[in-house]
Fold these 4 entries.
Entry 1:
Amino acid sequence: MSDLSELYQEVILDHNKRPRNFRVLDAAAHRAVGHNPLCGDQITVFVQLDGDVIRDVSFQGAGCAISKASASMMTDAVKGKTVAEVQDLFHQFHAMVTSTPDALPDVDRVGKLAAFAGVCEFPARVKCASLAWHTLQAALHQVPDPVTTE
């Protein structure tokens, strides 16, 4: 295993064990619920906007290490960004986790989220990694129905 792969594994494990922004955000005007029936991941994403800027974001729920780490890292990555910037980051992340294993992520655009680049080698885990992102999209667009990966 390369040093970079080991580092990425450590980052994911750290965010799973000590998730950032893992709390209910009472001031959130936007929220959505997501569920991955394949492995049982469940998440609620809370978003507080100031105009079109994400002032605060958090999540609650339970799931596998990939799902929880992805939600944790997502909340860190989108805080302070505009909705348009978040849309771009969502598309970059989704393309990265669904690409071919030999495609390198654009680290300048995805930053620490590059830790999930290896997920594309495990198609069943793509839904785990992207659940929080799809749930964030639903929260931003105020979709009332729960998000499901099926």
Note: The helical segments are 3-17, 65-78, 83-98, 107-110, 123-140.
Entry 2:
Amino acid sequence: MDTFSSIFERASERKGGAQALEALLPVPKSPRALSKLDDAMVLAEMSACVFRSGFVWKIIESKWPGFEAAFHGFDVSRCAMLSDEELEGLARDDRIVRNAAKIRSVQRNATFVLNVRESHASFGRYLAQWPDEDFVGLWADLKARGDRLGGQTGRFFLRFVGKDTPVLSADVVAALIEQGVVDREPTSKKALAAVQAAFAQWREESGRPNCQISRVLSCAV
């Protein structure tokens, strides 16, 4: 693998200089800030990511006030208690995107948030306590315990709420292939472990968070 400094230099050249590249880099929330996340906001972001997956994002954004109203402001307890009749009604509600499986995921993810609340007091504290160096483990936990939170959906959710994580976009995967970390999009445990190890090396070298390393990789190809 190349050193992170050489990757950063290539990315800087492509983006008009180091200062321009720095302006593009995300900043993750601190553990203290993560621990203060409101559970309703967490469920709302989960739901937005689920509904945006495979869909036109602008449509979800334009309908979002309708989503907020239909799902009671994403109150976690209220959404977890949605009855079958209410779910059937939501599947006919033109304020939202009427995808029955994704609508039901709101209820299931509300239950997930409540379960996490029992052990960690809040979902934000669960995220704050999860080690940044084990992002693959966090991805797996979201997939196993949440609904429709595997793959890029879960990674976007983490990025949008401020948890430090890479996002394996097509450009990031291309950069990882170029660096010999993987030979295709990583999906197996072995390939994901190789990705995590590469990020650990670059993080130790650069002192940068995973999300910034991810963005620099995407800008370097």
Note: The mean pLDDT is 97.
Entry 3:
Amino acid sequence: MRIAITGHRDVHGATMVDVDTALRMLLAEFEDGESTVGITCLDDGVDQTFARAVLDLGGAIEVIVPAADYRKSLDEGNILEYDRLLALASGVRELDHRESTPEARMAAALAMLETADHVLAVWDGGPAQVAGGTADVVEAAKDRGLPVTVVWPDSGRRG
């Protein structure tokens, strides 16, 4: 199964621990005898947690890089993990955008949806804070008829 991830970049601490646990449980449920492929941009926060979970469970990751300067847009503390996970990817697709703008990120999300069978959304249910945010990706997935599973802990917090 090919599973795309979308989620908030500002999930940390106990909420991220709960999200990690939930993602691992869901990924284990999706196992149907074939290897899982996680599709991700390896963005800060949720994307990297998802990628680690997919790899830990024996799956593969494919990465969509939104823009030439995407790596520079990540939090400094996540760059080494981004590089490590990118090196482990079974496939990498780099989009033609030069700058990592909200439009480039949305284009990457749409590229993920093109080949996904299912979408996991780590989403608090609120509106997108910027164009191409989690809510926009969820809406685009639903418009395409893709099943979306929302993950958000009862006590989840952002920030």
Note: Residues 13-30 form the longest helix (18 residues).
Entry 4:
Amino acid sequence: MKNVSLGVNVLLFIAVIVLYVLHFTGKATPESADAGARVDRGDARIVYLNMDSLLTNYAQSKELNEAFLKKMETNRTDLNQKVKAWTQAGEEFQRKIDNNGFATRERADQEYKDLMLRKERLEQMEQEMRETMQREQMELNQKLYNAIIAFLTDYNKEKEYNLILSTTLGGNVFYAEPGFDITREVVERLNARYAGK
């Protein structure tokens, strides 16, 4: 998944460089062999969004992430309480062993097996919780992505940009003039749209 994202970002970066060179050298791209027509994109309108800033300031993103974190904390607290109860049962078992508190060896073996079975269930519960949280995080990200793409599709009907790039800290856009950054306007409109729902 990261390789695909990296590949797409590299292609977008190359496309921006080509458009930049073509725009400022005044030369059009060579004729297309398929269409037989010249492609001149010297008037290309390219902007970008800072996704880190957008997700930090977008109300729906904040709400979804806050709800996700609360759920994760609740699950973690529940698991920690069960682990603590298991630990206490283990300590009680050890005290009984140390003080010959079991009437028979079979009774001690049975309680030990019960403790180990509880431990396995706790480990399984932790693994399932981790997988559920990862799945829910992916669903949350997909929901936000879909909302942003749906908004940008409508937004671009008005603005008519040729290319809207996305950047993050350490992403492919290392420098852009401030006029190319549409993040603030997009966040304001996204929040207004979300508040209206």
Note: The chain has five helices and two strands.
